[in-house]
Amino acid sequence: MSETQRPNITPENKAQRTPPGQYLTEKFPVLSYGETPRVDLAMWDFRVWGEVEEVVRWTYDDLLALPSVKITADFHCVTTWSRLDNVWEGVSIHEILKRIRLKPTAAFAMFHCDGDYTTNVSMNVLTDEDVLLAYRHDGEPLTPDHGYPLRSVVPKRYAWKSARWLRGIEFMPKDRPGFWERNGYHMDGDPFKEERYGRFEG
């Protein structure tokens, strides 16, 4: 399959792959709480901190130099639209984990982004084989509205967990809510369980 070609989607597997309460679209809507951040790559970095033996930092060029992967994955927004067979390219989370020393106490992670956006995931979710830090989508570099220069991609969770404008990951011993979770969204966000909304019991 070429970088931009999307696989055939049959009516049968469309139904199986579309979570309850979702409709399919070929568009890629942009939904934001605030303004799209302006990025100066000369000043930009990506950091890992928290429950790690030492803080690790990468420049954008450093990330581009890491082994890259492509995945094809569905994308489900909590506002009820889904877009199937997105082709993402970037760095597998496992490449990042190889290059840091996690403490045994690391049980959750918080994505930190420009614009003060945050969202949480458990280590079980973070370490899934299809989670990556993406810099390309459907064969093209990410646009500013879709997270340039870097976003997380967490395909098995609602799209707010695939955080745009990613700047770092904080590893945590206990779970805590991110931006939308503090404002009523579910802490886990599994679309096939329709975990759209919930209350943090922390």
Structure keywords:
202 residues; alpha+beta; Sulfite Oxidase, Chain A, domain 2; 6-stranded mixed sheet; 5 helices; globular; disordered N terminus
CATH class assignment? Alpha Beta
Alpha-beta content class: alpha+beta
Q: Specify the CATH homologous superfamily.
A: Oxidoreductase, molybdopterin-binding domain
Shape, per Cα inertia axes: globular
The overall strand count is 11
Largest sheet: 6 strands, mixed
Whole-number mean pLDDT = 93
Question: Helicity range of the residues?
Answer: 10-25%
Strand-residue proportion: 25-35%
Number of domains: 1
Give a brief rundown of this model.
By secondary structure, the protein is of the alpha+beta class. The chain is 13% helix and 29% strand. The chain contains five helices and eleven strands, in the order αβββαββαββαββββα.
Walk me through what this model shows:
The protein is α+β, with helices and mostly antiparallel strands and 202 residues long. It has one domain (19-25, 45-193): Alpha-Beta Complex (Sulfite Oxidase, Chain A, domain 2), CATH 3.90.420. It contains five helices and eleven strands. Strands 1, 4, 5, 8, 9 and 10 form a six-stranded mixed sheet that branches. A five-stranded mixed sheet has the order 3-2-11-6-7. The longest helix is centred in the first third of the chain and has 7 residues, at 11-17. The termini are far apart. 31% of the residues are buried. Mean pLDDT is 93; it is low at 1-5.
